[in-house]
């Protein structure tokens, strides 16, 4: 596998963005050894970091390189700041457009990646789990599969005013307002996971692997989405195991999520929840 | 010289920040060659990028590595986003605190850098020139010298409402409001260069090298600050040459600025405008 | 442009190799701006460093990023150690095979690069100039164009025993023997530029841009190859300007070399010396 | 922790070397949070890769960042090629001098590292385990502790002619000769671990943690060194657990090795086997 570090000027982000990537490489036959990994283009997982995370988190803390080799996929890991992977109309910085459009175009143009929907996955942890669900559903013609781990599904709580006095970790209440905008406009918007899911139903709805540790502080919020999806008959995998909000859980979850995707792929069901 | 790429979790930025650095290195004597660069700690230039820039801009586009060797200094180049290198009370992301406090502590603890005020410089181009002036003046007990190139001295224009309808390059008007806050509170605040300079006078006022190309679209704003500084008898170097807003000018300006610092250093005048 | 840093396990090098790259990127239309750089695959310049050099030398010291944008090419800059970019039968480390075969396969499989001979260039400075000539000629079915700057054309001198007592810079005489093998076998071998050129004549002979500063300590060796090529009527461009063995010359030479390639391309003459 | 990637021109290696590092960083108090990691300089582990490995192997495949935080140490991971971390008189490339002298001087001059012998450790896996033993013993006034995992202790076999026909993996027999020189001169030389250990006895002999998986193909060679050390009463820790030649074992071994070092440190025994 090749490890890549790249940076480019992003229109969507109004500045440079950095990303890391794991790519399979083709080696020619040599010294009596057969060629390796002949041929691309590869299925691709766009994999997002959490709040206060960075482009190398998955690379350093998980076996993502090994999993990429095992399943024959490329993994692209952008660094997006604490923007919940959505667009910000105030500053014009568009982290949702980055993930859903620009980075797809850029990396497909740059690397040897499949351009097929069935080969294009989005995943992430915590804030990145929210980002995977939100952008996987919003850009459902691009992504066939969503792998969401311990997702920060906090938009309902935000709409309910829960963070208005929250100042923990030095994060002021204004941060949430800056990210999500007026709370009255949240429900039903393109930041609302349940509303986005409902809109996809019957129309290229991505397959969703929704994973959360049973001791995670975000468990009840994930369970709520699971219930809402069940109620609307949005076919998804609800994967719960003992665990908290850390890489011990995320490493088990990404293994399980990719195995689930792979078995669906083999049975011809990817992208068809 | 060693080239460094580093990333760490920044409290001030509520997430990882990346920076690049150029450091002199000490080599032991070997194979009949004398030791090289024996001894530190080194004077240090904190060097800021412009709007939509990144940590490697100076490294790629200017002879900063050669200049660091020539003057015996370390250069630290953080990546700070489009935040004008000031704190944002709304999101809690504090790019001013990063430059004025945290990054100083972190890099002095990490590398072999001088901890003396007279050895600590701040510089930058465009938005980073503003950042150098603002933070050099605000943290005037830390920095003895400011090198400001083609500085984006736009706070007066902002206070005058000039950007309220500006939407060029996809930057919405809200961006300026997000960065600078209510325009009524700008004048006299710690974002106002002239007010900061006035406050420093007679009290560890950093030496200021104010450079601008005569064809730069920001020339008149730089000339205004020069006039305000002259009026208050803030000693500074006003360096004007033909040039526009690009690295051709910035490369001449950083050479001139470091030569100016070096000659002041040799005559014992650094940090004493 | 995207800047890339990559590393992968190389069979040819029996270990990891690192390379940097400059790639054009395609940006989708956004915020009223047109798409940018639509479409690949791109012509590619494989660009080699000199003795004691590294993958980032060209990136830091030359305007290679700007030139890549100007001419619409990708530039791949591998790090190969002090191996003169040839194979070493003793250790099994094959830096020639790396440049002539493996890296071509790997980067074409990884990035969106043209697979056409007429779009594939090799270049380098000093030891890398030798590497460009040697591998450009040896793998003449792969490369259509060679850009060689201040090339370390020392194989004739080596065969004549010139380095047997050379110990400057801590480089022992044994180094040359380790790199080039028995001096008696040099003439006419696939390490001998004139012999390689003769073999190509009339059979996919790459176009050669041979540049050297008139004050370079390697000037006479480059002039010798120019004369040998002239004698055998190997069509090539002999580009001499005042200059020594440094990036001031190499930056002028790479600009001239790419302009020469571009004008030949436009007149339909690339790869046809 | 800060992650560092650095490159510098190395006299010992006659070219650029790259290394990665994990450093603790000091953060100032902020937003009501206490300062973090106040003070250095830190104990330091120089950690070597194996054959065909690279500077990021430990960073990607082991919890070295977490262990560095846990034990309050810096970790420096150089990339040295397939040179067995010893000097090569033929080429003048001195990977032993790099590890034992130059990199120590460079990193101590660059970072905030302890200069005390008792705070300076060397470790590695496979070829790097050999390198740690060889250089830890040779430069025993610099290093107090050696952590050697699955070490490629092949010098006795080499002296016995075992590799003369070995061509597996494309590694020709000449490779070993190039690395180790005439086999007759091996025994008793400064490449012979048992001879180096005997020389240290009673004179700043580093504490040695010798770890090997019981199913490792190198087990018997490690057991031989253990027996030789036991016979000469060289105090060392012989750590055997089920395992083969992979990171599953190395990750258990580095945890055990650092815990062993830490408990010795706390009982005042470091560097006193």
Structure description:
The structure is a homotetramer of 273-residue chains. An eight-stranded mixed beta sheet of chain A has the order 1-2-4-3-5-6-7-8, with helices on both faces. The first copy, chain A, is 35% helix and 19% strand. The mean pLDDT of chain A is 92. In chain A, helix 4 (127-138) packs parallel to helix 7 (193-200). Chain A contains nine helices and eight strands. The first copy, chain A, has helices at residues 57-61, 64-71, 95-110, 127-138, 155-159, 173-180, 193-200, 219-231, 247-266; strands at residues 2-10, 15-23, 44-48, 74-78, 120-125, 145-149, 207-213, 236-241. With 273 residues, chain A is an alpha/beta fold. The longest helix of chain A has 20 residues, at 247-266. The first copy, chain A, is globular and about 65 Å long. Strand 1 of chain B pairs antiparallel with strand 1 (2-10) of chain D.
Briefly summarize what is shown.
Chain A has 273 residues and is of the alpha/beta class. Helices cover 35% and strands 19% of the residues of chain A.
């Amino acid at each position: 596998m090749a490890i890549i570090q790249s940076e480019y000027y992003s229109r969507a982000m109004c500045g440079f963005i950095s990303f890391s990537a794991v790519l399979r490489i083709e080696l020619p036959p040599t010294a009596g050894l057969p060629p390796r990994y002949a041929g691309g283009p590869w299925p691709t997982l766009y994999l997002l970091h959490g709040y206060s995370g960075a482009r190398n988190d998955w690379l350093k803390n998980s076996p993502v390189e090994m999993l990429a080799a095992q399943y024959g996929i490329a993994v692209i890991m952008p660094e997006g700041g604490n923007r919940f992977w959505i667009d910000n109309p105030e500053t014009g910085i568009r982290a949702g457009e980055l993930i859903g459009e620009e980075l797809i175009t850029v990396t497909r143009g740059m690397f040897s990646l499949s351009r097929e929907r069935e080969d294009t996955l989005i995943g992430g942890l915590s804030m990145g789990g929210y980002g995977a669900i939100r952008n996987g559903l919003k850009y459902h013609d691009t992504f066939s599969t969503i792998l969401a781990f311990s997702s920060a599904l906090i938009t309902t709580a935000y709409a309910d005013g829960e963070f208005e006095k929250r100042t923990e970790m030095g994060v002021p209440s204004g941060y949430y307002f800056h990210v999500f905008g007026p709370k009255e406009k949240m429900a039903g918007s393109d930041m609302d996971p349940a509303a986005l899911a409902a809109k996809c139903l019957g129309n290229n709805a991505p397959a969703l692997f929704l994973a959360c540790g049973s001791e995670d502080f975000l468990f009840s919020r994930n369970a709520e989405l699971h219930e809402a999806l069940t109620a609307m008959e949005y076919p998804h995998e609800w994967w719960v195991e003992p665990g908290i909000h850390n890489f011990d859980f995320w490493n088990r979850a990404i293994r399980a999520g990719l195995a689930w995707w792979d078995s669906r792929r083999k049975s011809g069901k990817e992208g068809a929840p």
